[in-house]
Amino acid sequence: MSIVGQRIKWLREQRQWSQIQLAEKLGIHNTVLSRIESGEKKGVDSQLISKVADLFDVSTDYLHGRTDNPTPFWRQASVRETPTPFLDIDGLTEEELTEIKRHIEFVKWKSRHNEPQEDS
After folding, report:
1. Closest C-alpha among 72, 27, 18, 17 to residue 48
2. What is residue 89's predicted lDDT score, i.e. its pLDDT?
3. Of 117, 118, 72, which Cα lies nearest the Cα of 98?
4. 62, 8 in Cβ contact below 8 A?
5. Residue 37 has what pLDDT?
6. Of 54, 74, 67, 42, nearest in space to 11 by CA
7. 32: Cβ contacts below 8 Å, ≥ 6 apart
8. By CB atoms within 10 Å of each CB, which of 24, 25, 80, 118 scores lowest?
9. Is 95 helix (H, G, I), strand (E, B) or coil?
């Protein structure tokens, strides 16, 4: 079973919805949902992932298994509430703090996806 399928199934079961009920909400056939949940269907469409994330109010990163925190980043505690000790955030607006948080997430993503450089 794929991580996407596992997480969709778990979320569905938490709401006590049948596959038919969830499939109707997503606008897909229940056999497609069954194949996703079982891992038989590979490469779930990004639009469908977004629909699932919106429906269950979770992040797409959570559905893909990139994080175990289901809370979308825009609902997580603000940087101001949980500041890093070295980060001076006094005087910054919420928009500026959000921009900083997005930049940090991008740098983390980039570091995970960069291959080691060979020395010349």
Report:
1. 27
2. 74
3. 72
4. no
5. 95
6. 54
7. 23, 41
8. 118
9. helix
Residue 20's identity, in one-letter code, is: I
Which residues lie closer than 8 Å to 8 by C-beta, 6 or more apart?
Answer: 22, 33, 36, 37, 52, 63
Of the candidates 67, 50, 64, 75, the residue with the CA atom closest to the CA atom of residue 108: 67
In the chain, the N- to C-terminal Cα span, in Å, equals 43
Alpha helices (H) in 1-120, listed in sequence order: 3-14, 19-26, 30-38, 46-56, 60-64, 94-113
Dist CA 67 CA 38 (whole Å): 21
Angle CA(6)–CA(61)–CA(111) in degrees, nearest 5?
130
Residue whose structure tokens are 């980060």 = 87
DSSP SS3 for 56? helix
How far, in Å, CA of 110 to CA of 25, rounded? 35
Q: Cα dihedral angle (38, 43, 49, 113), rounded to 10 degrees? A: 120
- DSSP 8-state secondary structure symbol assigned to residue 18: -
Low-confidence ranges of the chain (pLDDT < 70): 1, 69, 71-87, 115-120
